[in-house]
Design goal:
With 409 residues, the protein is of the alpha/beta class. 29% of the residues lie in helices and 25% in strands. The strands form five sheets. Strands 7-8-9-10-11-14-16-15 form an eight-stranded mixed sheet, covered by helices on one side. The radius of gyration is 27 Å and the shape is elongated.
Length: 409
């Protein structure tokens, strides 16, 4: 009987889009992932890091994580592997491990996580364990599942948790450790999987774009891990960190970023979000497919040259989150801005764009002294990319100026 895996990553529970909460969307999308796992009848679930968006996530995000992982285990009959990413606190991820094991959840917060053999009552069994490795025996399967697991690891964490010299380099350290584990445990009589959360690329391949708002994994290329480090025994590599689905290449077997389940920044606008299901058997190539996620609001970038056109579009397209660019000669009045904001509940950013024929820097220098209003306009254009202040704003400036003059007199 073949083994079927569901691979997901980068849930970022608790993440907001500027001031806008995504919590209801996260509940919906995790419910959809549970439904996919059940419909596809997967035997194992992998969540490859960035479970939370911050080291100290809100209480509701913590509760949502634990409830979702427990649902995914199907009362302990289906193992769920959840590892820490660069947004996660390793200690927080490891904290509930003793209770989670009884539910069928296997956490890995630190790169040096030591797994020990145990059995879930009426469920699966971990038959072998080591630092960064575990072997699982599932009911109804006549071959074991071997997982090499490395939670988020950069050179600093390798030194902190593994006692490695930072000068050795991330690729050399991981290649050595992964190869030693694969040579010791991963023969062709089982299914062999690598799970990690890091920036991985094909050597000589194009630089893969990291999502906006990510805590950087790369300083230059010091923290880039190349696919040539993956041992040849590995049949599938399940990665987290990059929010766009992609197959990295550079290894005999698939190396996959599954994508985040929601678009978390406007740089991801238009991306299809996915989970990946993988079918594995010993000494056979992995067969995988993607399943598009339907939940969550679309993120849309729109540009308009008139407030009326913008409001017309916003009124019709209500169920989305919007980054709105307005091209104009002057800044928006408060009345115009209020009309725009009242027309749509999901406007995250309003970005003014100057379309002025007269560029401030190229104006001839006048020898005469400028009025205070002219100086204010000059300063406003300087701070706002050559955009002129509106008449309403100048009137407000004069009102404030007049009030201040009265006080001084």
């Amino acid at each position: 009987m073949s083994l079927k895996i569901l691979h997901t990553a980068d849930w970022h529970l608790g993440k907001r889009l500027d001031y806008f909460s995504r919590f209801d969307e996260q509940k919906e999308v995790l419910d959809e992932i549970v439904q996919i796992a059940d419909q596809e009848q997967v035997d194992l679930v992998i969540v490859a890091g960035d479970l939370f968006d911050a080291f100290n996530p809100p209480v509701e995000a913590i509760e949502l994580l634990y409830k979702t992982l427990k649902r995914l285990t199907k009362n302990g009959s289906r193992p769920v592997i959840a590892i820490a990413g660069n947004h996660d606190s390793p200690d927080r991820v490891d904290a509930p491990d003793s209770l989670a094991r009884d539910c069928g959840i296997i956490f890995a917060g630190k790169p040096n996580m030591k797994f020990n053999p145990y059995q879930v009552e009426g469920g699966f069994e971990i038959t072998k364990g080591d630092i960064g490795f575990l072997e699982i025996k599932l009911l109804g399967h006549d071959f074991p599942i071997r997982l090499i697991i490395t939670a988020f690891a950069n050179e600093h964490r390798l030194k902190e948790y593994l006692g490695e010299d930072e000068q050795i380099g991330l690729n050399e350290v991981l290649s050595k450790k992964w190869s030693s584990l694969a040579d010791l445990y991963c023969d062709d009589q089982g299914a062999n999987i690598l799970v990690s959360h890091l920036y991985m690329n094909k050597k000589g391949g194009p630089v893969l774009e990291e999502p906006d708002g990510e805590k950087p994994l790369r300083i230059g290329f010091a923290d880039t891990v190349y696919t040539e480090c993956i041992p040849p025994q590995i049949q599938y590599t399940a990665l987290g960190h990059l929010h766009r689905y992609q197959e990295v290449g550079g290894h005999r077997a698939p190396v996959i970023y599954s994508s985040s389940p929601l678009c978390y920044s406007f740089s991801e606008a238009g991306q299809d979000k996915k989970v990946v299901t993988v079918t594995l058997e010993p000494h056979k190539e992995a067969v995988y497919k993607t399943i598009n996620i339907q939940s969550g609001k679309k993120l849309i970038r729109k540009k308009f040259h008139s407030v009326t056109d913008a409001i017309d579009w916003l009124t019709v397209n209500q169920d989305c989150l919007v980054e709105l660019t307005l091209v104009s000669e002057t800044s928006l009045t408060q009345g115009e801005k209020k009309r725009i904001e009242d027309s749509h509940p999901g406007i995250i950013y309003i970005i003014p764009e100057v379309n002025s024929s007269a560029i401030y820097q190229n104006e001839p220098i006048s020898r005469r002294s400028k009025s205070i209003n002219e100086n204010f306009s000059d300063y406003f254009r300087y701070r706002n990319n050559d955009q002129s202040p509106s008449e309403e704003l100048i009137a407000l400036f004069n009102e404030v100026l007049g009030t201040q003059t009265e006080k001084e007199n």
